[in-house]
């Protein structure tokens, strides 16, 4: 593909009122619709009208009475919400997060196949391991298993899932009323997996779905995470604070993918971008300061504490970030914690300044500016080897997402950087991803 | 409620082309749409136009290359399919089967809350334990745990789920933009459950859903099943071969519910009814014999073997059902096996005759007749203490379900036995079920 034809991929990271932690308090935010499917449907339809590749839902399997005191919580679980969105949209990809830590591969592989059928080939799975004790405590454990063990389980979880998706060959279904043959039983395989974590016989109780398997997405950027991504991921959502970091990450991952014998073009890297957009500089500044005013630093501190697995709730706001455990000992969100520490040190921030910097995107890159400025930045990253596209995380959905669609996307289209029409129907087609070979074929 | 006002409840047991095992081969069956959501959507919309209370999806978490050779398999998993159906319908209840044997309560409670939000209060959960080795083998086991142990786990699974649904009091969400308070943290509770099978801290990461909890449905009719139903169920789907059996079951369950300190009116009993309908007797006979001609007895024998957990594939078709293990030793589908043995003995059937009798509804009551005859039968059971309504299982969707809607339902309405308009919006309202008390309220 020459650079002229290369288009960027744009994913909308759906987050009710926006990614800024105070977005639900913003005066224009339609917070009364937080519990209404219709609100999410309209956002996703807008993203589809703008020809975005996909939408994405994050997930986490715990909460606490303290954290919901100030933090808005949406009521939808990803696979159920995406199934509902699947039947009211036609083209846009639907990516959901499901953890490998507290689920069984047979159940998860099956739900994604079901979603892939419901959406006619638009399912994607963001594969995570759960990183906090509070999640472990909802699943029979006291503490979260250590980072390496979780990734070991995740790898086997993926191996089993892929075998299950492959357990029906593409042409196994015959559906012949006359002969009464529904499937060619030679093309439906037991997988007989026996591993350290799972023993699964198969076959899956769903035949091969339109995309054969969902697009596999990954976001971990720790060492274990990068190795996992290089082995399995077809798209990577990543948090990068600077162009230089993003470019280094991009090169490292693509190299590692190559070393693993895979085609680096078949792994799309999408850094997160959290814009605050205004038609003028004044407008931008106004929105930004309004959001800052609405922050609750008690809540911000608790969020940060949860994220990095260290209690900071009694730390002083006007002093630098206190000393944290060395990265090697962190069992939770390793790479994100590392990024946060680096950010605080590089810019010499007080804890309060750091919290403000994190409020808009929890460590993802925040851009504040006019549509022109945002488009320039995206173009620069895209054309200079730091990104195949972007995970768009509007700090407030209204007006940022509207402005992104109304002003930034047309600008990108004008520059020839983004599609003006969908050229395919499936998420794989939007991302330019091939259907992987079936390991059981022609046995 | 006096008898004049009492209306029956009608649930459509959705099964792609129909409940007869040869229905997918029937000439008029739109089998080419087996994989299309639109087909299911249209069926459910029809049921909704007819003012039926609910639709229901069964489930099983395994298949085999042998059983899909002749048996059609649908591609949808219940919670994902129901979520999709939720947003294209408005009134009809949506009941899905999820097993307690190979899932975690936090995940399941959450998905049903999500479905309840997506449907604005129309979610129902048919609670099962998985009964076969082939399912166990997809979840790290060699053999299915014994019947009593599965029910013990199911009971604790329910206790945890109910605590999780109760973990948010009804008025916990405050959503005040001004003060920045999202929830009253005193009304969001850790559940701190510690039992034999589960340790779960809570709270659920979804606030209290429109129905507070899904309608709890149960279908097991073994001793363990009946006890479970008397404790938890709000609706019971049951297989009963005769009016006398249905009436005895009805009385026994309602009594046991009462003994458990619950109101027997709050547990609705819906026997399964598998009709073949024709406008004339000749039409009925023609449909019935056409379906019989399309049966594959190899397949039927395998299905029966799976159902009762005993390999009958080499048994002789023209002889009586061979001796089976005594009921006490059956670890799989206990009560259904008992029903099948009784049916064969009572009517002195050869194995082949038994297979024909089971083909239309796997042990549920089959009625073959004109709309008038079907309505008479339903009325008799309903008015004489054998049923609060029925689980309608058309042997072939097309034409049986169409005929049921076009001719049987209007007949029932004419007789004042079935609603002509929905009077409520939620599944609880359709079934006349109260919202249960929250165990954490006013603590």
Automatic annotation (TrEMBL), chains A, B:
The keyword ATP-binding belongs to this UniProt entry's keyword annotation: no
Residue positions binding FMN: 59, 97, 147, 151, 222
Luciferase-like domain location: 29-381
Keywords noted in UniProt: Flavoprotein, FMN, Monooxygenase, Oxidoreductase
InterPro entries linked: Diverse_substr_monoxygenases, Luciferase-like_dom, Luciferase-like_sf, NTA_MOA
Family stated for the protein in its record: Belongs to the NtaA/SnaA/DszA monooxygenase family.
Protein name (Swiss-Prot/TrEMBL): LLM class flavin-dependent oxidoreductase
Originating species: Metabacillus sediminilitoris
Lineage summary: Bacteria, Bacillati, Bacillota, Bacilli, Bacillales
């Amino acid at each position: 593909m020459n650079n002229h034809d290369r288009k960027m991929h744009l994913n909308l990271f759906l987050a009710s009122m926006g990614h800024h932690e105070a977005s639900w308090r913003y005066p224009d935010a339609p917070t009364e619709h937080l519990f209404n499917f219709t609100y999410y449907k309209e956002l996703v339809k807008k993203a589809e009208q703008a020809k975005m590749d996909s939408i994405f839902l994050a997930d986490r399997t715990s909460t606490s009475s303290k954290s919901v005191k100030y933090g808005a919580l949406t009521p939808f679980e990803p696979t159920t919400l995406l199934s509902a969105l699947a039947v009211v949209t036609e083209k846009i990809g639907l990516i959901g997060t499901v953890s490998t830590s507290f689920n069984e591969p047979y159940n998860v592989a099956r739900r994604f196949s079901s979603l892939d059928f419901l959406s006619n080939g638009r399912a994607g799975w963001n594969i995570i391991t759960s990183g906090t004790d509070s999640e472990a405590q909802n699943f029979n454990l006291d503490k979260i298993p250590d980072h390496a063990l979780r990734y070991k389980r995740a790898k086997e979880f993926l191996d089993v899932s892929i075998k299950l998706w492959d357990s029906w060959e593409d042409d196994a279904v015959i559906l012949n009323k006359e002969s009464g043959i529904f499937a060619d039983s030679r093309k439906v395989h037991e997988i007989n997996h026996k591993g350290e974590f799972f023993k699964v016989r198969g076959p899956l109780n769903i035949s091969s779905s339109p995309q054969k398997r969902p697009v596999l997405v990954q976001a971990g950027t720790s060492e274990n995470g990068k190795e996992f991504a290089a082995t399995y991921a077809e798209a990577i959502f990543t948090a990068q604070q600077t162009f230089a970091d993003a470019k280094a990450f991009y090169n490292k991952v693509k190299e590692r993918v190559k070393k693993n014998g895979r085609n680096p073009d078949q792994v799309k890297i999408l850094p997160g971008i959290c814009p605050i957009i205004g038609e003028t500089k004044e407008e931008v500044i106004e929105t930004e300061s309004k959001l800052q005013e609405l922050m609750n630093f008690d809540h911000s501190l608790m969020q940060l504490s949860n994220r990095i697995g260290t209690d900071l709730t009694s730390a002083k706001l006007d002093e630098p970030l206190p000393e944290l455990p060395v990265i090697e000992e962190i069992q939770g969100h390793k790479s994100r914690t590392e990024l946060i520490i680096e950010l605080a040190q590089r810019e010499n921030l007080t804890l309060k300044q750091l919290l403000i910097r994190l409020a808009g995107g929890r460590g993802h890159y925040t851009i504040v500016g006019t549509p022109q400025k945002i488009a320039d930045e995206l173009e620069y990253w895209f054309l200079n080897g730091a990104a195949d596209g972007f995970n768009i995380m509007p700090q407030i959905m209204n007006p940022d997402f509207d402005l992104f669609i109304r002003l930034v996307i047309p600008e990108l289209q004008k520059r020839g950087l983004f599609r003006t029409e969908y050229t395919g129907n499936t998420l794989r087609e939007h991302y330019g991803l091939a259907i992987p070979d079936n390991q059981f074929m022609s046995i």
